[in-house]
UniProtKB/TrEMBL annotation:
It comes from the Archaea. PANTHER family: DIMETHYL SULFOXIDE REDUCTASE TRANSCRIPTIONAL ACTIVATOR. The keyword Transcription applies. This is Predicted DNA binding protein, contains HTH domain. The lineage of its organism: Archaea, Methanobacteriati, Methanobacteriota, Stenosarchaea group, Halobacteria. Keywords: Transcription, Transcription regulation. Pfam families: BAT, HTH_10.
Amino acid sequence: MSVIVEMEVAASDFELGRILDVVSGVRIEVETMVPAGERAVPLFWVYDGDQNSFESRVREHPAVDAVTEIDEFEDRTLYAIDWNVEFDHFFGAIVENEGHVLAATGHSDAWQFELRFPDHDSLSAFRESLDDARINFEVIRVYNPTKPDAGPWFGLTPTQREALVLAVESGYYDIPRTCTTVELAEKLDISDQAVTERLRRAIVNLVNHSLLVTADDD
């Protein structure tokens, strides 16, 4: 049975964290990791950042071949990085132990990850690899998403859970709808577009950690 771990990793202890080198006040959220042969191309959102400065800093990193702007909104920009995962012990350990990145959010000093592994043995081997590489990390939660005692979050980050609960309680999913994303944005103190994106990611995480995981195990 698959197992999911939520953990925090020091930004300076893995290559992608050093590549992105998030300055104070800037937040990065990984959208997905696209496999490309032996490489991994992350697509990620950069919130509240100086776009030109950020792109210049990332391009200068020796492990980066290219950084490409994919999309841009008022409060965030979507980028893709062509980056060699072989230089990153953290992501190398994920790949070696058949893990998958479900969610990742980076700040100036640390990153929060949700990772899925095939079983507890794979997770244990992954943690041993991090210890061997002297990567500082803190395990926040470990759970089997299909067990009754797995808890109500099922892969949702705290901000995703907050937005989804508020949307349901406020009537956003009612018919007829009694709340708009603009009203949700005011309550959450974020932009209308950010609310829409957060709800979308929350629903994707919820399905991935419940319905799809159950189908795989069956």
